Amino acid sequence: MTALTGPLISAAALLSCLDSQNPPALLDVRWRLGGPPGREDYAAGHLPGAVFLDLDAELSAAPGAGGRHPLPAPEDLQRVLREAGVRADRPVVAYDSDNGSIAARVWWLLRWAGHDEVAVLDGGHAAWVAAGHPVTTDEASPEGGDLVVRPGAMPVLDAEDAAGLAREGMLLDARAPERYRGDIEPIDPRAGHVPGARNAPFTEHLREGRWKPATELAEHFEARGVRPGEPVGAYCGSGVTASSVVLALEVSGLTTREHPAALYAGSWSHWCVDPTRPVATGDEPGH
Asked: CA–CA separation, 24 vs 14, rounded Å?
């Protein structure tokens, strides 16, 4: 297997990997909250050989009691990944439009499923195009994959776990500050945050569409109280952009591949639908 050196890969490094004896499978996961569908972007141009996967229809279970983007059933995820050509002995690179937050969900899902060699394209499709690398409108038809999904390789929090981590460890809220404070809530039925959680917007991982260096990410998280070796988890609106917090923590060195941050997969869309669960508002974590 071609070794990936970390959870991020540059456009130049990916171009080189694609010429190797065992090139990575490419997953195009461009998506926008509220649309239009990412498949339209894929049809207009994508990395050669990339397969499009839809966040809503293929990388999540149906919305409901588990939140807006619940984790897919293992057998459903296995079918989707095999149809996309994902193999156990082949690395995978996922990309979205630019900021990596959707691709990070795929990185997390594959790691959760037991696939170790996964990376996110730094800067996404935009960085690839800006570098002058080739794109195509031809739809990929990969050979079937063989990945066996064995969930559990990444830690997952339920609501009770998230509440406990907010009290006794470090729970990070990846949403925008105004949603964390409860000033607005454009999607879910209640506004605010999990009591005790600290705001760590996923947009602060980036500079001009690229991920910040490890030292800057470490400073970002340390300023919020994260310490090496101490329990940390993340949530967001529906468990998608919080995946990029898990990835950024690993890049920063404050967590490791062996001891990653936990993900509250249901996130705020799960927490807030139960009226018995408390809600905090304002800039402070609350209790």
From this structure: 8
pTM attached to this predicted model = 0.96
CATH 3.40.250.10 maps onto the chain at 8-130, 156-271
Catalytic residue among 236, 242, 263, 280: 236
236 in catalytic set: yes
CA dist 230 and 151 (Å) reads 24
- Tokens at 37, concatenated: 């569908």
pLDDT in tens, 171-212: 999 999 999 999 999 999 999 999 999 999 999 999 999 999
8-130 — its CATH code? 3.40.250.10
Q: What is the CATH number of domain 156-271?
A: 3.40.250.10
Q: Shortest CA distance to 53 belongs to which of 22, 30, 87, 85?
A: 30
Between 196 and 3, the higher pLDDT residue: 196
